[in-house]
């Protein structure tokens, strides 16, 4: 199945549609099909359900860095879908086009939640 993200005038994903590969053997054909189906001339970008952080989880070719979700932004310069920034202090990784905390997530058996006030990870209450 082929997946297509519908973009608004600000390149924000407003919907993601699934189209049979026979109907959409390539991006241009899929876009034409969706515009005919929705009786309009919308902006669509194909997205890969199996792409996350610039890696294809089944060994295929990664496509537009990340699978698009509603609220994501399509960055034309990077040809990438980028999720909304979760916290002001987080930084965009230019390679993966994913947001990263300024402090790495602890590598132990506990669960943590991000504390934006201290820009650090706090032990989750369930683990305290």
Can you offer a commentary on this structure?
By secondary structure, the protein is mainly beta. The protein is built from one helix and eleven strands. The protein folds into two domains: about 1-85, no CATH class; about 85-128, no CATH class. The strands form five sheets. A three-stranded antiparallel β-sheet has the order 2-1-3, covered by helices on one side. The chain has a two-stranded antiparallel sheet with strand order 4-5.
Give the fraction of residues assigned to helices. under 10%
> Helical element count?
1
- How far the N terminus sits from the C terminus, by CA atoms, comes to 44 Å
Major sheet: 3 strands, antiparallel
Biggest β-sheet: strands ordered side by side in the sheet: 2-1-3
How much is the radius of gyration in Å? 18 Å
Structural class: mainly beta
Give the uncertain stretches in residue-range form: none
Order of helices and strands: EEHEEEEEEEEE
Average pLDDT over all residues:
95
């Amino acid at each position: 199945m082929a997946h297509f993200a519908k973009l608004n005038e600000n390149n924000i994903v407003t919907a993601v549609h699934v189209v049979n590969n026979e109907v959409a053997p390539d991006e241009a054909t899929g876009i034409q099909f969706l515009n005919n189906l929705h009786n309009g001339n919308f902006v669509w970008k194909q997205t890969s359900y199996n792409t996350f952080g610039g890696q294809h989880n089944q060994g295929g070719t990664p496509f537009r860095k990340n699978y698009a979700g509603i609220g994501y932004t399509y960055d034309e310069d990077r040809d990438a879908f980028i999720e909304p920034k979760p916290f002001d202090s987080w930084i965009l990784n230019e390679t993966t086009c994913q947001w990263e905390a300024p402090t790495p997530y602890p590598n132990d058996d506990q669960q943590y939640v991000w504390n934006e006030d201290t820009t650090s990870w706090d032990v989750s209450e369930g683990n305290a």
